[in-house]
Amino acid sequence: MNSIDVPTRLSMETLHGSLADPAIASMNLLNELIDEYPMAISMAAGRPYEEFFDVRLVHDYLEAYCDHLRHDRKMDEAGVTRTLFQYGTTKGVIADLIARNLAEDENIAAAPESVVVTVGCQEAMFLVLRALRADERDVLLAPAPTYVGLTGSALLTDTPVWPVRSTENGIDPDDLVHQLKRADEAGKRVRACYVAPNFANPTGTSMDLPSRHRLLEVASDHGILLLEDNAYGLFGEDRLPSLKSLDRAGTVVYLGSFAKTGMPGARVGYVVADQHVAGGGLLADQLSRLKGMLTVNTSPISQAVVAGKLLLNDFSLIKANARETAIYRRNLHLTLGELTRRLGACPGVSWNTPKGGFFITVTAPLVVDDELLEHAARDHGVLFTPMHHFYGGKGGFNQLRLSISLLTPELIEEGVARLAALLTARLP
What are the alphabetically sorted keywords of the record (predicted)? Predict the structure, then answer.
């Protein structure tokens, strides 16, 4: 029988349920629209600024790391070559350098053995949730709205996500206490709460210092972990201490990424998991066991590129990203100014005013869904992200997220003008 005549034996009903969840589709929606409407101004994708990309830097970074192997680790040329070309250890070959960066930029004291280098932060999230999800009682708490990558990792690990109220000051610690009580009454076991205290994706909100201390207190008192995602923490006017640097009770698992601060194409992230597991060493050791069966290891060449950038900048990504940070601050101020100029007099239209990061949340008295997004791309030449994607389709239908990271001043002015034309045409 010809292979094309073989009857289909698969259906969506026989595949994992996550594949039919809207959260999975949302990760691809914007890419599809960008391909379909290439001339539209994208105020959607949270990608780093591209003007400073330079292929020659890749060679500089690789050479810097090779010099480090030769001089600091006393490797011969065969050892240097093997480090780049072979699989490498599952935990990663640059954990010690990441630890030095965390000490330099975040005042985090991380032992290298507590660090697992991952294929982007996405793998770090998956590994942590896979390890924590032991049976059907286990649930994860997360702010509503929340990053869709976290939602996707939860779907893939069959981990239910319970929402916690989010305010202009980030996740609400008091509502976290309430949700912990609800979960206990329902016979559920809350393993962790995901939180992005600095310029969160998608809202752009940040937590003030008292709220950070309160959140740590709640986590310690109730015996749960905090999964801290700090992808945008460098890009703000006022840099508050990370939860991990404030943690004295071992409650924080730190999720790190070099996508915004190093090089997104390298796909290098990491997790700091220094919690002790009875009979199992560190939590990092257990995550490494899972990683060994998932991706085996993170590309040593990708790690070398990131390491070289650290080495050439005295282990400071604050220093390495000084130009980018200035661009993001400029773009944020310009976008907020253009919103005021174009939409300030429109009744019912409002937006928040983040102090850093990539994102602004706009609220309008109309339905903001995927149909409106496609209309915006086709007829107005502008792209944004409907916020309902970050609510799991259960809210946010009158909000949209704007990203300012990729744009020039001219594109910001034109992009906001196009957005304003779209919204004013639809306003009641």
Answer: Aminotransferase, Pyridoxal phosphate, Transferase
Across 226-243, average pLDDT? 95
Euclidean distance between CA atoms 234 and 260, whole angstroms = 9
Q: Of 296, 313, 330, which closes a domain?
A: 313
Q: How far apart are the first and last CA of the chain?
A: 61
Angle at 57 between CA 56 and CA 63, to 5 degrees: 100
Output the domain CATH number for residue 278. Answer: 3.40.640.10
SS3 (DSSP) at 204: coil
Tens of pLDDT, residue by residue over 117-130, are 999 999 999 999 99
What are the pLDDT digits (tens) for 300-326? 999 999 999 999 999 999 999 999 999
Q: Where are the beta strands (DSSP E) in 244-331?
A: 252-257, 268-272, 276-277, 281-282
Distance of CA 301 to the CA centre of its chain: 22
Quote the distance between the C-alpha of residue 354 and its chain's center: 17
- Residue 340 CB: number of other CB atoms within 10 A? 13
The enclosing domain of 348 has a CATH number of 3.90.1150.10
pLDDT over 50 (residue 1): no
3-state secondary structure of 141: strand
What is the total count of domains within the chain?
2
- Looking at the structure, do residues 323 and 371 belong to the same domain, yes or no? yes
Asked, for residue 287, whether it belongs to a domain, the answer is: yes
Q: Say how far apart CA 341 and CA 420 lie, in whole Å.
A: 10
Q: Which domain holds residue 141?
A: 58-313
